Amino acid sequence: MTPxxxxxxxxxxxxxxxxxxxxxxEPDVEVVARCRDGREALEAIRRHAPDLAFLDIxxxxxxxxxxxxxxxxxxxxxxxxxxxxxxHALRAFEAHAVGYLLKPxxxxxxxxxxxxxxxxxxxQRDEVGDGTGAxxxxxxxxxxxxxxxxxxxxxxxxLVPVASIDWIEAEGNYARLHCGTAxxxxxxxxxxxxxxxxxxxxxxxxxxxxxNLARVEEFRTEDHRDYNVVxxxxxxxxxxxTYRAEVEGRLGDRI
Length: 255
Description:
By secondary structure, the protein is an alpha/beta fold. The protein contains eight helices and 15 strands.
């Protein structure tokens, strides 16, 4: 298996070393460059064309956001911002980062970020035959809709790629995102998410369920009126009569 190539950048030697060592413990990751400022990071990304770039936000020469802005869109790797400050989360979202690690991060936060990154890259390879973060972002941009969902949990703010979401269920006044084996609780209503994610290929199939239509493998008739929706993950969800016409309209055909 070809390893994921990573560039790491941080002006604090201890933080740089700790991040690089965490990555090097991953069996499928190769750190191709350790950078001490934004200028070095930009040059390393252009030279090595990595799959991943872990960027500190506050760095000399260029900060993490300026590094991303200086990169041609087609050459941008999956970006994970690493910072001691959580006020940058919204701007990271706007910069299309796939991850946001708050320093000092623990092993679970790091592993969770890596799971998201791997899931995104795997789905990109399956769906568009390419391993770069720019491809899925470009497709979503063409369709409209957000590329990331902001999920806050205590002092941690995570940016969940829309492309990684299989389905969403209502949980009281909140919504739970299902992304493979991972789930995330977000403080938004299902109605809000359905409206926001419709341009990105999501449809409401039940009063308590939204599904990513790209994940739907088949529809199974339960009786003469109702259907079950089967995802490519094997998950089976209920399609209510109320939303059947909407789903057919989105698919451009009758079920």
